[in-house]
Design goal:
The chain is mostly helical and about 160 residues long. The protein has helices at about 35-65, 70-75, 80-100, 105-125, 130-145, 150-155, and strands at about 5-10, 15-25. A two-stranded antiparallel ribbon has the order 1-2.
Length: about 160
């Protein structure tokens, strides 16, 4: 009969330590298999969520940069001319690139959040539905909350 205690202690950035106590018989137990599986799962979630946000903003930015006729017409209804609409697409593209790159991810999060705040304000000003920009902003913030433990610690006031 084996009695195994596995103590998994989660640390920041999904660092995991596994320890086992063996009683009665020697058990070959791979300490590295549990942390690798969990870290791999976290990396998959990390990049999947990042990719989802990226796809949303790349689709939006590409419509602005390529001068989609219907999108430009809608922007002109907001009082934005075609040249400024293209410039907004450039800002959106730069923001999403900063969001994807882990080193500048928090800066990208702030820029995308500000961008979506402007989209919400524009929708309010023109009496349009707020659901889509609010959902996208919530998605950006939720992904950032998952991706950046330091941001989560600051917001929740947690100590190291």
């Amino acid at each position: 009969m084996y009695l195994i205690f596995v103590l998994i202690e989660l640390k920041s950035h999904c660092t995991i330590r596994a320890k086992s106590l063996y009683i009665s018989q020697f058990i070959l137990f791979s300490h590295s298999s549990i942390p690798q599986k969990i870290m791999k799962t976290n990396q998959i979630i990390y990049w999947t969520l990042t990719g989802l946000v990226t796809l949303v903003f790349l689709g939006s930015a590409s419509g602005k940069l390529m001068g989609n006729v219907e999108a430009v017409r809608m922007a002109e209804g907001f009082g934005i001319n075609a040249e400024n609409y293209r410039n907004i697409g450039i800002v959106e593209l730069i923001s999403v690139i900063l969001f994807v790159w882990p080193r500048t991810g928090i800066l990208g999060t702030m820029l995308l959040s500000a961008y979506m705040g402007g989209a919400i304000a524009t929708h309010v000003q023109h009496a349009q539905d707020l659901m889509a920009p609010c959902i996208v902003l919530t998605l950006v913030l939720a992904v950032a909350f998952y991706r950046f433990p330091e941001l989560r610690k600051k917001i929740l006031g947690q100590a190291d």
